[in-house]
Amino acid sequence: MSHSVLFVCLGNICRSPLAEAALREECTNSGLNVIIDSAGTGDWHVGQSPDKRAQAVAAKNGVDIGHLRGRQVTASDFHDFDHVIAMDNQNLRDLMAKRPANAVATLSLLFDHIAGRAGEDVADPYYGDEDGFDQTWAEVTEAARNLRKLLEIG
Ligand code: 4NP
């Protein structure tokens, strides 16, 4: 059984590319075949590579994300992916507004996949300093580990 997961944030240059990279790493390491992508609710960074600080924190943790390019979420994503996972509650509201009535994808928050943190936002590191990106990496890595386990049994 195959699975597909789309991570969504605002710009698709900080949080969701890191979540994409973390889950891909988890699944590759455990031999799990999952289609993984990311997108933004906004269109400002379409076609752009991830934020330099996101690239740096990924590289520091052994993952190259320099080839990823920003794209905006589309209505067809709700048919093309099994699971659409938002980084924060604003992303979730924007996705609910965009979701077609006959959508098949499940919709959740990243932190819904970490025990005791359901409903919380992944803080946006874009306007902060590099420490924020270390925190983002730690959060998406923990969630990715849990998601991989769920995908394995599901
Ligand atoms: P992301 O961070 O949603 O984690 O990719 C942001 C990136 C860009 C902007 C906001 C958040 N922006 O306003 O351009």
Short description:
This protein is an alpha/beta fold and 154 residues long.
Keywords for this entry:
single chain, 154 residues, alpha/beta, four-stranded parallel β-sheet, 5 helices, 4 strands, binds 4-nitrophenyl phosphate
Radius of gyration: 14 Å
What about the largest sheet?
A: 4 strands, parallel
Query: Helix tally?
Result: 5
Shape: globular
Give the class from helix and strand content and strand pairing. Answer: alpha/beta
* Overall number of strands: 4
One letter per element, helices H and strands E, the order comes to EHEHHEHEH
Approximate helicity band? 40-55%
Are there runs of 5+ residues with pLDDT below 50, and where? none
- Amino- and carboxy-terminal Cα gap: 8 Å
Work out the strand percent. 5-15%
Rounded mean pLDDT is 97
* Hetero ligands: 4-nitrophenyl phosphate
Structural overview:
- With 154 residues, the protein is of the alpha/beta class.
- 40% of the residues lie in helices and 14% in strands.
- The protein contains five helices and four strands.
- It has helices at 15-29, 52-60, 77-80, 89-98, 130-153; strands spanning 3-9, 34-40, 83-86, 106-109.
- The protein has a four-stranded parallel sheet.
- β1 (3-9), α1 (15-29) and β2 (34-40) form a beta-alpha-beta unit.
- 43% of the residues are buried.
- The model has no long low-confidence stretch (mean pLDDT 97).
- The structure holds 4-nitrophenyl phosphate.
- 4-nitrophenyl phosphate binds next to loops.
